[in-house]
Input
Amino acid sequence: MKVDTRIVKFTLGILSFSIVLAAIIMVSTQRREVAPPVGYPGMLHQPPHTGKALIMVRAEESLPLVGVKYVGEQERGVDNDQTAEAPMIEPYRTFITIQRYQINNNGKGVDSISNVKLQIKFPGQVDADGKIKTQDVELPGNGEYWPIGNGQVQEIDRTFELPYKYIENDGFKFEVHMLPKGNSIDPCKFEVVTLSQFNRAYICRTDVEWQRKKRIAEDKLDEESFYVRVFTDRLDSGTTKKDIPTNAIAIR
Output
């Protein structure tokens, strides 16, 4: 008996197509089952810590900040071998310079004036439990404010020296809070790491994109920022002898 080869080929084709289709459906189902959730409103996202950039998580009542390291000086390689002993680091001097405050737009009108000040939280005295407290410094000081208009910059250029006793694991933490009258803004928190290896500078600014997502009009966007530099007296970290300040304010 002769077999119609066309019918056989057609049947095999349908069978092959069914097997491939079943495999695709199975893989697709498995991928959907193991796929991570996309997210949900209010979920906090924290990027991997690199020691170079920091994104502030917003509070509902306050204007959010985005702190960005904007100047990177010569960086040295970091040994990722966790079994190796950490190299001994000679004590060094640490300086924090608050460079300037800038307002592109305060959201209150072209000719409006903002009255602003900064509150800085440095590491402070060690308590009985061995924990480092914070000590607060305000600029310009004495409860005063700087009057700044839109598109203006307030030069500050105030340098503080942090004692080596507050350096932990070759780094430290500090916080700077912009305090404009009549407005609430989140503090910008800095975690400085591998301090002895390179100097660094930061800009901390209000998050304009977040404001746009809140449908705030362009002329009402609050665009404020301040600039900070952190450096040591180590000549092998990029500092020159001329960079070492003689008028730094000592933090006790």
